[in-house]
């Protein structure tokens, strides 16, 4: 189990590869992002994305899943207050194999809650060509192994 | 064809729709994308910081998109009926300053809005503009639960 104290600056967690299946891309888009390029290959080809492409929100949600499977699922995570930025740098296409990593940028104890710490991560999701497709920085709260003096 | 900037007065907030977050939907979304105990199980959630079953922040985000797409299709129809063409929007290159301000609990209704902030041309891409929009959501008690600034490409 990973506690706040385990997230030292510079520690990196690598994601397991995930394949973008068209059925899953279309299912997500049908519920949350019904734009033609997220629903249909031909419509995608006519758009600037160049083919059936995942909703950025789908890629982001999958990035969350990759973080959980890589390390956060076995941690004292207490959720996130937000995302500093998310850049959808390249379209995520049907059949892409996504992987990537989370890197600890900074870790500090909470000023107000002695049993919590805040860890800032840089998260990069990349495709099979090694190109970053979704790059973000976010903060996550973790419970501490030892209570601080906050 | 009107541009987003001509079409929407800056700083004017427009409600785009609501989404009810049922426990069933919260758990279904979390199983696929965010299987943390406080998004999956009411009892486990009681022992977390949140104090109760609550939606993945990404679910709250996706709810904004769902409402925006529906709103935008209605706008296109409304303008077409007046003989006008809606701004031609493309994909988004991303967002920033996203804050999950309060948990969205099972049974909550989130009402989403959009506020046009600014538009600029892209020297590198003639005919493209980048619009910045403020995206927000509040619960049935009028409390803000999410806010972020999104970028949207527009073809002119």
How is this structure best described in words?
The complex is a heterodimer of chains A (150) and B (156). With 150 residues, chain A is of the alpha+beta class. In chain A, strands 1, 2, 3, 4, 5 and 6 form a six-stranded antiparallel sheet that branches. Chain A has helices spanning 22-32, 36-39, 41-46, 56-70; strands at 12-14, 18-19, 82-88, 97-109, 116-126, 132-143. Chain A has a single domain, classed as Hotdog Thioesterase (Thiol Ester Dehydrase, Chain A, Roll). Chain B has 156 residues and is an alpha+beta fold. Chain B has a single domain (4-21, 64-155), classed as Roll (Thiol Ester Dehydrase, Chain A). Chain B contains five helices and six strands, in the order αβααααβββββ. In chain B, strands 1, 2, 3, 4, 5 and 6 form a six-stranded antiparallel sheet that branches. Chains A and B meet through α1, α4 and β3 of A and α2, α5 and β3 of B.
Topology:
The complex is a heterodimer of chains A (150) and B (156).
Chain A: E1 12-14, E2 18-19, H1 22-32, H2 36-39, H3 41-46, H4 56-70, E3 82-88, E4 97-109, E5 116-126, E6 132-143
Antiparallel strand pairs in A: 1-4, 2-4, 3-6, 4-5, 5-6
Chain B: H1 4-7, E1 13-20, H2 23-33, H3 37-40, H4 42-46, H5 57-81, E2 88-89, E3 94-100, E4 109-121, E5 128-138, E6 144-155
Antiparallel strand pairs in B: 1-4, 2-6, 3-6, 4-5, 5-6
Task: Write a concise keyword list for the protein shown above.
heterodimer; A: 150 residues; alpha+beta; Thiol Ester Dehydrase, Chain A; six-stranded antiparallel sheet; 4 helices; elongated; B: 156 residues
Mean of pLDDT of chain A: 96
Helix-strand pattern of chain B: HEHHHHEEEEE
Helix and strand succession of chain A? Answer: EEHHHHEEEE
Give the count of structural domains of chain B. 1
CATH topology of chain A: Thiol Ester Dehydrase, Chain A
- Structural class of chain B comes to alpha+beta
Which superfamily, in CATH terms, is the homologous superfamily of chain A?
Answer: Hotdog Thioesterase
Shape descriptor of chain A reads elongated
* Rg from Cα of chain B: 18 Å
Instruction: Please state the oligomeric state of the protein chains shown.
Output: heterodimer
Radius of gyration of chain A: 17 Å
Please give the domain count of chain A.
1
- Amino-to-carboxy terminus distance of chain B: 8 Å
Beta-strand content of chain B = 25-35%
CATH architecture of chain B: Roll
The overall pLDDT average of chain B reads: 95
Give the number of DSSP strands of chain A. 6
CATH class of chain B: Alpha Beta
